[in-house]
Amino acid sequence: METHKPSVLITGGTRGIGLVLAKNFLQKGWSVSACYHQDEADAKKAFEELSAISPHFEITKSDITQETFVTSLVQGALEKWGRLDGVIHNAGSTQNARLINVEEAQWDDTLDVHLKGAFLIAKACVRPMMKQKGGSLIFISSVVATTGNIGQVSYVAAKAGLMGLARSVAREYGSKNIRVNVVCPGFHKTRLSGNLTPEAEEAIKEKHLLNTTTDLQEVADFMVWLASTKTISGQVFNLDSRLPGWL
Fold first, then answer.
1. pTM for the complete prediction?
2. Residue 8: left (phi > 0), alpha (psi -120 to 50), or beta?
3. φ, ψ for residue 112 (rounded to 5)?
4. In what order do the strands lie in the sheet with 178-184?
5. What is the DSSP letter of 242?
6. How far is CA 247 from CA 47, 145, 171, 181, 238, in A?
7. Proportion of the chain above pLDDT 70, given as a percent
8. How many other C-beta atoms lie within 10 A of the C-beta of residue 98?
9. What three-state secondary structure class fits 31?
10. What is the mean pLDDT of the chain?
11. What is the rounded CA–CA span in Å between residue 190 and residue 200?
């Protein structure tokens, strides 16, 4: 058990934005627990990259849509680091299709990873965070949760649901010093968006007031800062220059 560093648990932490977050937290002196679902090659690569920064991390294979796995994941982080100061639910999945082409199983899979996963993570973390008199939960959402998006009805519904979940949990446990926030990190070229054409990417840039997409290092720095704050909760942070829709 190690207690001299703040610790963070990052779901989906072995590739894309999650891996950048894991690296940044390690570089800033945090201990990191990262989990992945099934991509062993990415997990091995992440282990090598994180090892080059600090030994204060662990990588666990898990299924964040199943309560027993989530409970074990959180308990493992607590046993490893002695406490859990921050949790970032970053794991994601999308199966793009217009409404009439979305199969029920596709809908369920998308909401399970994004929304049910957030619910299970929050539920598993609240008691130990109350015991240690505080903690930070951050859910990764998207600007499309407030604008809608063609061909992403299940993804948009899940990401919008995260905002309601976060604000409700923030109200329920604010008196226990548990902070719950949502971050919309903006567009980045990851596996979920890797099939976009150059024309589609340019169209996304044109929606930005600054005609550019977000710098991933800025996002990572913001996340470390937000996880460290003590008086911010129930908020949604949009980290790019696109204008959101209804609020």
1. 0.91
2. beta
3. -60, -50
4. 57-61, 31-36, 7-11, 86-89, 135-140, 178-184, 236-238
5. S
6. 39, 10, 18, 15, 11
7. 89
8. 10
9. strand
10. 91
11. 14
Residue in this structure with the two tokens 């990415």, named with its chain if needed = 42
- Name the band, by pLDDT with cuts 50, 70 and 90, for residue 241: confident
Q: Which of 25, 81, 155, 173 is catalytic?
A: 155
- Residue 11 CA to residue 38 CA, distance in Å, equals 12
Rounded to a whole number of angstroms, the distance between the first and last alpha carbons of the chain is 43
Which residue carries 């790019």 as its tokens? Answer: 240
Q: Where are the alpha helices (H) located in the chain, listed in sequence order?
A: 16-27, 40-51, 67-81, 104-111, 117-131, 144-147, 153-173, 198-206, 216-228
Give me the torsion for CA of 163, 178, 233, 154, rounded to 10°: -10
Query: Side chain identity at 94, as an amino acid letter?
Result: T
Phi and psi angles of residue 168, each rounded to the nearest 5 degrees, phi first? -70, -45
* Confidence (pLDDT) at 178: 98
Residue 173 among the catalytic residues: no
CA atoms within 13 A on the CB side of 228: 12
Q: What is the mean pLDDT of residues 226-232?
A: 97
> What whole-number distance in Å separates Cα of residue 91 and Cα of residue 11?
5
